[in-house]
Amino acid sequence: MALDLKLNLPEKTEQKSQPVEKKEPSLTDSELSILAYVEQVYWETGRIPTQQMIIECLDPLCSPATKSKVSKAFAKPRFQSALEKRGLEYQADTKLLTPTQLLLVNMLLNVEDKKSLRQKLEMLNINMAKYQSWLRDPAFHSYLTMRTEQLFENSDHDAYKSLIQAVMRGDVQAMKLFFEMRGIWSPKLDININIESIIYRVVEIVGKHVKDPTILTQIADEVEQLELKSGAKA
User: Fold this and answer.
1) pTM of the predicted model as reported, rounded to 2 decimal places
2) What is the Cα–Cα distance from 159 to 172, expressed in whole angstroms?
3) Domains in the chain: how many in total?
4) Domain membership flag for residue 206
5) Tens digit of each residue's pLDDT (9 = 90 or more) over 141-150
């Protein structure tokens, strides 16, 4: 009787080859030189230099070969990618912001959103270098500053409300601030009054025990000078 023996061997599975990511070609030496100049000028002036400025810096004679190198560098995607990674973007002479910039400002000024700056930037796929570059853009900086000042002004009600709540809880420091804001009490004025009263009491005591009018006059003159100096400092 023949035995039908089957071995339970694991089936061979075809291994799928993983797609190999294409590495971005590295920049040439001339492209690196152009990139370094662009980055230096940008952080010194806040503006990306024009191609003509770059050509004149690299080659005062402005030879055709240099012009060709610069124009070809800016035309290559790898060079544009290197600029973008460093947050270097040409800023158009316009006050209009991009939808991404407007959305970022709204996210930054949302006081209820507890995410960090880095988290908010990552949500919009913005690196820190690009954000720092936007802050140097007059249009973006002006808009962000204006919106921040508006938020500050609109928070007066919340600040007063929080102060009143602290006073109602019996917070002594809040009470002092409240009375000082209302002009009812001032710690500086209170200190000045105490010092003045002490000086006059000392003068009265001295007058009881010193009978020489010359000495009394000298003491009075010195006290008057002290008062004048304290008044000038105030």
Assistant:
1) 0.46
2) 17
3) 3
4) yes
5) 889 999 988 8
